[in-house]
Amino acid sequence: MNDSETVTHILDLAQELVQKRGYNGFSYRDLSEQIGIKTSSIHYHFPSKGDLGRALVVRYRASFQTAFVQIDAHEDDLRMKLRLYVELFRQTLEDEGKVCLCGMLSTDYQTLPPPVSEEVQRFFVENEAWLTRVLEEGQRAHIFRQDIDAAKEAAALLAGLEGAMMVARAFGDVERFTQTSSVLLAALEA
Amino acid sequence: MNDSETVTHILDLAQELVQKRGYNGFSYRDLSEQIGIKTSSIHYHFPSKGDLGRALVVRYRASFQTAFVQIDAHEDDLRMKLRLYVELFRQTLEDEGKVCLCGMLSTDYQTLPPPVSEEVQRFFVENEAWLTRVLEEGQRAHIFRQDIDAAKEAAALLAGLEGAMMVARAFGDVERFTQTSSVLLAALEA
DNA sequence: GTCTATAAGATGATAGAC
DNA sequence: GTCTATCATCTTATAGAC
To answer: Quick check: A158 and B152 CB within 8 A?
Structure first.
């Protein structure tokens, strides 16, 4: 499954639709109409909807891994690293009220084909792992509170951001997300 | 729309299905089969799916208002009030991996009929209002941090709990929710 | 790779008998 | 209030021609 132009087009649009409407909120027909290609052609690239869903999360995970490498390479300030991370989500929300792909899929969780749900889990594991590393480093540098468990704090931060995206979108108000993310980050300060 | 036995049965099952599978993850047929009544009979009580969805959130909001009254009446300790509130969500999660009805609906937000989405907004407003009151009272009693904005902190707590339910369920691990909720509550301590 | 044609089943919804 | 019957539409998916 390499990425021809068509495949990329399908993935881009499908991701957008999942982020806006959820896994059960879009169909091959939606993709068909907006791409200008028949549904059977989409099935050629992604035989089942589960195949498409899985490809979506795999690519999304990879984009976050890339972001982690970028942030680690170009930013030393640990507080700024977290702010850049939060910024990834804020931009998504600003972009027509989309929320995190995996936050979205986690609500559809019980209806997902297992190959998809496994990838969603992996996303959370990887994100928490990176956040934990940043927090631990920050603790060693006496930037973040010493009396916290970095891993648990990382999980809480991620959960908080995911929830904040959902609530903020329900109000059509990105500022709500920004405020909640500030509160979550402030809780880490020494 | 009073609550005959049948109506209550429909609402109970529909709520369970939304909390597990989302608004677009259940159908009148699902209700029909599990209740032992034809879909046309369900349409008699709830002409459109939007009518059903709206009734669901109205009832859910009312159940939280009742919980608020109960907590305020029987518990003076402000920390305990918050713990009892968190416990409402934890029990939901423990009950077969259901998540907050409105957390669920907030991801389906862009596909909801307006009457439903308006009720979802109201749920968040009401919950934040109660939490804000508890936090403000706790600040006056010097139990919670003085350097926080109660309203913003309330929003962050609610968002954090909503997100924590989603993530915890994706791992099939209620303990994950418990840990994150502890982190969120700890951040309020003076 | 994309198309036409088609399938089997699901979905929200309505008309009218009992 | 519940049933049968029926609806148009949508959904995922496949077979086979170009």
So the answer is: no
Closest CB to A187 among B124, B166, B187:
B187
Cα–Cα distance, A26 to A28 (Å, whole number): 7
- Backbone torsions φ then ψ of A105, nearest 5 degrees: -65, -25
* Distance between CA atoms of residues B170 and A162, nearest Å: 13
The overall pTM is greater than 0.70: yes
pLDDT in tens, B98-150: 999 999 999 999 999 999 999 999 999 999 999 999 999 999 999 999 999 99
Element housing A130 (H / E): helix A114-140
pLDDT of amino acid B166: 98
From the CA of B120, how many Å to the C1' of C8? Answer: 37
Residue indicated by tokens 């035989």:
A47
Mean pLDDT, all residues of chain B: 97
Of chain A, the end-to-end C-alpha distance in Å amounts to 47
pLDDT of residue A3 exceeding 80:
no
Which domains does chain A carry?
Answer: 53-186 (1.10.357.10)
Q: With contacts defined as CB-CB under 8 Å, which chain A residues touch B169?
A: 106, 109-110
**Which of helix, strand or coil describes residue B118?**
helix
Cβ atoms A84, A72 nearer than 8 A:
no
Separation between Cα atoms, residue B129 and residue A160, nearest integer Å: 19
